[in-house]
TrEMBL record:
Pfam families: DUF742 (PF05331)
Naturally occurring in which organism (per UniProt): Streptomyces coryli
Region (Disordered): 1-22
Family matches, as PANTHER family: DUF742 DOMAIN-CONTAINING PROTEIN (PTHR36221)
Biased composition (Basic and acidic residues): 1-13
Name of the protein in question: DUF742 domain-containing protein
Length: 123
């Protein structure tokens, strides 16, 4: 059987990457959360952090970051939370849009329903 990147990695390597942590410091990330780098990598950074910052110059979903790093999503979320805590990345869920006060809000359900009805009529 061929090894699966991330899943069949040496557990010691994954433990080292996360410094022994098994959960991210924040619940900010799910699979489709978009991550954007807010700074360039600096010398001395962990190589995975450098890769994430380079990869996220444009909005990139957590699941894409995980796939590119060939690491489990759970490990990727821990690495991303490190960068979020230091202000090196920002994260936002694609479902939310800022309102006039700058807070996040969900799209209007009535508008979504109208779009759905319109799509059904076109198909």
């Amino acid at each position: 059987m061929t090894p699966r990147p991330g899943r069949d990695d040496d557990p010691d390597r994954l433990y080292t990457l996360t410094q022994g942590r098994s959960r991210p410091a924040t619940d900010e990330f799910d699979l489709v959360t978009l991550v954007v780098a807010e700074s360039d990598p600096v010398p001395g950074m962990q190589s995975e952090h450098v890769a994430i910052l380079r990869m996220c110059r444009r909005p990139t979903a957590v699941v894409e970051v995980s796939a590119q790093l060939k690491l489990p999503v759970s490990i990727t979320k821990i690495l991303l939370s490190d960068l979020l805590e230091t202000g090196k990345v920002t994260a936002r869920h694609p479902r939310t849009t800022p309102n006039t006060a700058g807070a996040q809000r969900l799209p209007d359900p009535t508008t979504l329903e109208k779009v759905l009805v319109g799509l059904r009529h076109r198909l």
